[in-house]
Design goal:
The complex is a heterodimer of chains A (about 290) and B (about 475). By secondary structure, chain A is mostly helical. Helices cover about 70% and strands about 5% of the residues of chain A. In chain A, a hairpin with a 2-residue loop joins strand 1 and strand 2. Chain B is rod-shaped and about 150 Å long. The relative contact order of chain B is 0.15. The chains are: A mainly alpha (about 290), B alpha+beta (about 475).
Chain lengths: ~290, ~475
């Protein structure tokens, strides 16, 4: 049987079609104004799963970037401290070589060298206790406030290093090993300078001390090189994180955000559709036989 | 054959045409009445009288037209289809509504969702690790942990509130069902007596059909017509309405979500408490399934399952964080401390709370690695990433709700489409078409004019016979 068409069915169908048209329009308006394709999980459950993953990745990446900045500052602090230490150690060597010239040096001259060495030792000790945001960069995770006590004992814990997470499974050490750089207690660089000063004052030739100074300088340069190497890693991680953050944002946008030009085009088309629909409806529903019967 | 029978024949024509016009009028004025089914006057020709007499002879015409009744042009099969599709769409609409509300309360994906708060929480641990032992990052961490707990509780409460609201609306629906059932029973009685006294029960039947459709929307139900014009309405095989008797139903079961496991929400017969009615469709069935308790396989009612997921997530979060946190040492040297605690007297999501109140309660480092060690804080921050991340459990829940909502929405759309199709079919048979009624009006008008003309003709013929016979040549 062919469906009988009546005014009621016509009106109902027209209403339903207009409602569908309006719903589609409202959805497009929603997308265009919020600029989001994914407003609730049921819009696209698969994309929601990915979007949640990507957002979690973004948050982690942002945290790694903060860690990297922090680590970078730590390594910079250690690096500049080590540079100053090396300059001072060169001066220590120069002075020791000068002081070793027993024949040409008067006791007064030796005394002045000893005084300068003493001053350098104090500077070295203060460099060894360099801090970043209240943490000593040469003492690992120690919270003693200084890396070396006045008696040259080291406060750091062996094997406890300061690490910064730069990737889910990667950390970078951002402190410098104070024990390796300066030595500890009697074998420390401070004791070495003290001994040298003592030798100068008591008239013992300081030439044998040169070997010890050279060994210490080697240790310092070696540790400095390691700090430099770690700095390079941190710099690379920084670049990689920036690239990663971009990629993640791209993924997030492609999952969650609308293509604005497409939505606007759709909206325009839908506008035309809707206007056509209401115009046609107005025309179709109007006439009845009564218009033509006298 | 009587001389005057022609007059009578014309008179029956006038009566039939007038009845037709009256029905057209009734149709036209009810063109926009919901549930009105168009009517037609049904007529039949009156056959000629038997001629048994000795002097009778020749062929005789019929005796006019008789108005047999006013027919209601409904189609029982299509009406049944409308009820069946309405029951299904009532069921799926209720479920889709519940899921869509639940989904909206998640605020995912976006900056206001729990996942974002969770990420902030992990990041806060990262910052604590970078500055272990400092007050400021710990303050931020405790703030973020507090927000996380609050958000978890807000989410759980939203589900709880939705459960209570659905339970209340179910009570309303059951009251509607009972009043519709008793009205159908009442109409059954009136229709039966109208039929017995020979009156037209058409308008009463229209109202009864509307009511049975709304019963179908609420609770499904099969309509079974009886010989005397009454109908029985069966819900899950038992009579909700039987003749002029309506059997009341009531909503029974827990009034709070936490009690629903022990005392599931159900619909039962007032005369047989304790036995749940296994509804086949309708929005009450949708509400009952939405309010169902959670089960082990995760296929229980959506709201209870969502609440269970909130609880499970709270437990996982507390366990995973505590497992790492308790191995660490605080700046003051304390070990074995918990970060989260769960009050066992409440649902886990509501009982979750943050234990530490300051830097002294947060274990950040490994014992013996120096007071400023942040390795434990770093390990906790790592719980948010990787294959076994705590976040994954939440994401899985969100996606589960999303898929369920999408599926239910599709089913609801399909059911709506089927209902629209059935309603359209019903309307196409039963609704009043103005053009058609105008045509009918014209034809009845013409029939009336024709019958009146016949009457005039017979009248004139009789006039000639009576008044002018025998006056030849006068």
């Amino acid at each position: 049987m062919i469906n009988r068409v009546t005014n009621a069915t016509q009106t109902l169908n027209a209403q339903r079609n207009l409602q569908l048209s309006l719903q589609r329009q409202a959805q497009l308006y929603d997308q265009a104004t919020s600029r989001r394709l994914l407003n609730k999980p049921s819009d696209d459950p698969t994309a929601t799963a990915s979007a949640l993953d990507v957002r979690s990745g973004q948050a982690a990446t942002a945290q790694y970037a903060r860690n990297v900045d922090d680590g970078d500052a730590w390594l910079n602090t250690a690096d500049s401290a080590l540079s100053s230490v090396e300059t001072l150690m060169r001066r220590v060597r120069d002075l020791t070589v000068q002081g070793a010239n027993d024949g040409a040096m008067s006791p007064e001259a030796k005394e002045s060298i000893a005084t300068e060495l003493d001053g350098i030792k104090k500077s070295l000790l203060s460099l060894a206790n360099t801090t970043y945001l209240g943490r000593t960069v040469f003492a690992g995770n120690s919270d003693a406030g200084v890396a070396f006590q006045p008696d040259y004992s080291f406060t750091g814990v062996a094997g406890s290093t300061v690490e910064r997470r730069i990737a889910p499974d990667t950390t970078v050490r951002v402190d410098a090993d104070g024990a390796a750089v300066f030595g500890t207690g009697a074998s420390s660089v401070f004791s070495l300078i003290d001994n040298t000063v003592n030798d100068l004052r008591t008239g013992v030739n300081v030439r044998p001390r040169l070997g010890e100074i050279d060994d210490r300088m080697k240790a310092i340069v070696g540790e400095h090189a390691e700090v430099g190497g770690r700095q390079t890693r941190i710099d690379k991680a920084k670049d990689a994180l920036a690239v990663g953050a971009n990629a993640l944002e791209g993924q997030r946008a492609s999952l969650e955000d609308v293509d604005l030009s497409k939505v606007i085009l759709d909206l325009k088309t839908q506008d035309v559709n809707y206007q056509t629909a209401i115009a046609v409806t107005a025309r179709v529903l109007q006439p009845t036989l009564m218009d033509f019967l006298r | 054959m009587s001389t005057f029978s022609g007059l009578n024949t014309a008179y029956t024509g006038l009566v039939a045409a007038k009845a037709g016009l009256d029905v057209v009028g009734q149709n036209l004025v009810n063109a926009n009445t919901t549930g009105y089914t168009r009517q037609r006057v049904s007529t039949s020709g009156v056959p000629a009288l038997n001629s048994g007499g000795l002097f009778t002879g020749g062929v005789r015409p019929g005796q006019g037209v008789s108005v047999d009744g006013i027919q209601r042009l409904d189609d029982a099969a299509i009406d049944a289809r409308v009820r069946a599709t309405t029951a299904l769409s009532g069921y799926t609409n209720t479920r889709a509504d519940a899921l869509s509300t639940l989904e909206a309360s998640l605020n995912e994906p976006g900056a206001n969702g729990l996942s974002t708060q969770l990420q902030k929480f992990w990041s806060a641990w990262g910052d604590v690790s970078n500055q272990a032992g400092n007050q400021a990052p710990v303050g931020v961490l405790l703030g973020q942990a507090g927000s996380l707990v609050t958000q978890l509780q807000t989410g759980y409460r939203a589900v709880d509130d939705q459960w209570t609201a659905t339970r209340t609306s179910m009570d309303g629906m059951v009251a509607d069902l009972n009043s519709a059932a008793s009205e159908v029973a009442d109409l059954n009685g009136r229709i039966r007596s109208a039929l017995m006294s020979g009156q037209s029960p058409n308008e009463l039947m229209d109202r009864r059909d509307l009511l049975t459709t709304s019963i179908a929307k609420l609770a499904g139900g099969v309509v079974r017509p009886n010989e005397d014009g009454t109908v029985d309405v069966l819900v899950a095989g038992n009579a909700l309405v039987s003749g002029t008797t309506a059997n009341a139903v009531k909503a029974a079961g827990a009034a709070r979500m936490t009690d629903a496991g022990a005392d599931p929400v159900r619909l039962e017969w007032a005369y047989r408490p304790g036995a749940a009615i296994a509804l086949e469709g309708g929005s009450i069935a949708g509400a009952v399934s939405t309010l169902a308790p959670a089960d082990a396989s995760g296929t229980g009612g959506v709201l209870a399952e969502a609440a269970a997921s909130y609880n499970a997530f709270a437990v996982t979060l507390a366990q995973r964080v505590n497992a790492v946190h308790s191995t660490g040492v605080t700046p003051t040297g304390a070990t074995g401390l918990d970060f989260f605690s769960i009050d066992a007297s409440k649902p886990a999501a509501l009982g979750l709370s943050v234990v530490p109140t300051g830097v002294s309660g947060v274990a950040t480092g490994t014992a013996g690695a120096g007071g400023a060690d942040g390795s434990i804080a770093d390990a906790i921050g790592k719980l948010g990433t990787g294959a076994n991340a705590v976040d994954k459990q939440w994401a899985a829940f969100v996606v589960r709700v999303g898929i369920a909502s999408k599926t239910e929405k599709q089913q609801s759309d399909l059911a709506d489409l089927a209902t629209a199709g059935a309603t359209n079919a019903q309307l196409s048979g039963a609704s009043v078409d103005l053009d058609e009624e105008n045509m009918n009006m014209l034809s009845f008008q013409h029939a009336y004019q024709g019958a009146a003309r016949v009457m005039t003709a017979v009248d004139e013929a009789l006039d000639v016979l009576i008044n002018h016979t025998g006056l030849v040549g006068r």
